[in-house]
Amino acid sequence: MKRFILVMCALLCGVTSWAWSNTHRTIAYIAQDYLTPKTEEVLAEYLDSPISEYALWADYYVKDQRYKRGEYAKNRVTHIFSVNDDWTVNTEPVYAGLWSKYSVNYEGMKTINDGLDILNNHKEHADSVVQFNLKVILHLIGEMHCPVHYVVPFVPGWTSKYRHSYFKIWFEGKKLGYHAAWDGFPGKIYKGLTLEDYKLLYDTWDEKQRKKCCKGEPMDWAEDMVPVAVSIYDRVEPGDHLDKEFFKKYEPVYGDLVRKAAYRMAHILNTAFDPEYRLK
């Protein structure tokens, strides 16, 4: 049944989003190799498949029609990080005028902070609550490392130059949002690769590099992303025609973001579920 849901998610999201979905799964697939035995044991209490099988769950969740009402409406999940004028990342709900259906847009950073608080104290919460937040975290750690998931600076009504999906460019004769272009990043360069292929490409940092990137807190990681977001927006103007070579230039940036997301995902899960884990 889970595999059916994942396939349906791919069909609903379309080809471009499915390419980024490969990124989400790659991040979790790499992270799996860095989980401690104790963490794996605890995860098995909440999930009946490897974490890479749940990396897309939050995307499927927000597309469910029940999301707009009833119990689902109490657990909204936003994948966007809004940034203040001083380049700090918002940690509280911010009004999003574009999404007039919702009076409040719960920030990605707040969702991550709230979710990690529950995971770090999982014994105090019902299994269903832990499971929900675990699946959200498995997705949002990836979103945190995608530069077009940042709105810099945030302006009610989304009128800033640094928009989310509403900055239109052209790629291979198709008009699409710059957000969508980056969401489909690996598909712009590589074709037909498996998760194991992506792992061979990106799981390349040594232990010292892995530990260095995991230092600090999620807020530090998010704020480190702000200059990256500004950079990738400043190099493109609305209506620009981009090609494969443009994305090839950013492949080293994309690769490092995948690595950071994967190693940090393993780190936060080990921190939450293995009392003996330490980042030395």
Architecture overview:
This protein is mainly alpha-helical. The chain has 13 helices and five strands. The chain has helices at 2-32, 37-46, 57-63, 70-73, 108-120, 127-144, 178-183, 185-189, 195-202, 207-213, 218-234, 244-249, 251-273; strands at residues 81-82, 150-151, 168-171, 174-177, 241-242. Strands 4-3-5 form a three-stranded mixed beta sheet. Helix 1 crosses helix 6 and helix 1 (2-32) crosses helix 13 (251-273). It is globular, with a radius of gyration of 18 Å. Mean pLDDT is 80; it is low at 1-20, 69-74 and 98-104.
Low-confidence stretches: 1-20, 69-74, 98-104
Tally of DSSP helical segments: 13
The coarse overall form would be: globular
Order of helices and strands: HHHHEHHEEEHHHHHEHH
Estimated radius of gyration: 18 Å
Intertermini distance: 40 Å
Helix content: 55-70%
The largest beta-sheet arranges its strands as 4-3-5
User: How large is the share of residues in beta strands?
Assistant: 5-15%
Which structural category do the helix and sheet elements fall into? mainly alpha
Number of beta strands: 5
The overall pLDDT average reads: 80
Biggest pleated-sheet summary: 3 strands, mixed
